[in-house]
Amino acid sequence: MFFAESSAYQPMFVIWFNAEPILLLLRQEPEVARLAGIYLKWASLGLPAYAFNCISCSMLTINSRQGLFAVPTRIIMAVAPINVLLNYVLGGLEPIRLGFIGAPIATSIS
Fold first, then answer.
1. Of 32, 50, 64, 85, which sits 20 to 30 A from 41 (CA to CA)?
2. Which residues, 6+ apart, have CB-to-CB distance to 69 below 8 Å?
3. Distance of CA 9 to the CA centre of its chain
4. Alpha helices of the chain — where are they, by DSSP H?
5. Helix, strand or coil for residue 97?
6. Distance between alpha carbon 23 and the CA centroid of its chain, in Å?
7. Taking the model in full, what pTM does it have?
8. What integer pLDDT is reported at residue 61 of this predicted model?
9. Which region is the signal sequence (predicted)?
């Protein structure tokens, strides 16, 4: 099922990776389009994980007979602090400090 659903994120990858020219075609301000394009290029690295997360959450919550409603919540509770820490380290901590691109990289990792 994952492989069938994974084809759905491939068009999203193309759109996200080419967001700046698309936004410029839609007459977005050039600076906003540039920053959104940079953010989405780095965030697109996490699309396979986003796709897997969406599929697994729906599989676990749709089938109520399994009684696995709490599994996605527990996963989020474990990953959210890691995401916060990675955002702090990659975005603002002085030795590394990637700045603006640190946030999508941290989200892609977590």
1. 85
2. 60, 61
3. 11
4. 2-17, 19-25, 30-43, 47-62, 70-91, 102-109
5. coil
6. 19
7. 0.74
8. 66
9. none
